[in-house]
Amino acid sequence: MPHRIKVGRLVNREPIFNVPGAVLAIIAVLIAVHAAMSFLTPDDFTWWLLALAFIPARYSGLAGELPGGDVSAVTSWMTHMLVHADMTHLVFNSAWMLAFGSVLCARLGGGRFLAFSIAGGVCGALLFLVFNPEMLAPVIGASGAISAMMGGVMRFLFPALDRGEGYLLRERPSAIPALTLRSALNDRRIILVSAAFLAINLLAIIGFGKFGEEGEIAWEAHVGGYLFGLFALGAFDRAAQNDPPPSPDLD
C-alpha cells in the first residue's frame, strides 16, 4: 500500500518575537528623543520641535527666520523622523516599524536597512515639499520611512505566500525571491494594496487621520515613502533570487 510522505522543512524552533537589533535600536532612539523633549520647558520644546521638524517654508526663503536656521535646512530632512507629536504617534509608528521593519531589516541587514529607511523618509519629505512648497507647518515623525518599509516588503510578501513559505517572512526573509519592479507593477494584488494605501492617506484631505488635537497626517510623506520603498528596494536588496521552489509531495 503506497504511503504519502510530505517532504517539508525541518522544524526550527525560532522565537515568536524575532526583532533585529537595528530595529530595536531605532525605536530606542525615538523613545529617547521623545523622553528628552518631554523634560524641556515649553519655550525650549517649541524651539527644538521647529528646529528638528521638516518645514517647507525653509526652502522658500524663510530658513534664516526659523529655529535652526540654515543648519536645519540641511539636517531636518532626517531629524524630522526623530520627533513625534505625542505618545500615541510614537507607539503607532513603533508598532508598524516592528511589523514591517523587522522583516525588511532581516532581509537587508542593519546597514542597508538604515540607509533604505533614511532615504525613504527623505523622499517622503521631498514629496511633501512638492505639494506644499511654502507651508509653515512642521512635519514630524518616522511615518515616511515606515511607509517605505511597507512598500519594500510588498516586493517579496506575495512571492512568499505564493510559494507556501509565509513562515520565511519571520524566519529567513532573505530566502524569498523578490519580484522584479516590472512584475510588481503588474501584480494585481500589489496594485490593490497600493491603491488602498493611497486611498486611506487621501482621507486626510477631508479631515480624517488626526493624532488627537496635535495635527493631521502628512499623507504626502506617506505616499512618497511608500513609492520609494516599492520602486527602490532592488537598489538595496542583496538577497539571493534563485532559491529552489518548495519540495513537492511524494506519493
Automatic annotation (TrEMBL):
Membrane-crossing segments per the record: 21-40, 87-106, 113-131, 137-158, 190-211, 217-236
Domain Peptidase S54 rhomboid, first and last residues per copy: 74-232
Primary location group: membrane
InterPro entries noted in UniProt: Peptidase_S54_rhomboid_dom (IPR022764), Rhomboid-like_sf (IPR035952), Rhomboid_protease_S54 (IPR050925)
Coiled-coil annotated spans: none
Mode of membrane association: Multi-pass membrane protein
Subcellular location, record wording: Membrane
GO CC terms: membrane
Family to which the UniProt record says this protein belongs: Belongs to the peptidase S54 family.
Protein name: Membrane associated serine protease, rhomboid family
Organism name: Hyphomicrobium facile
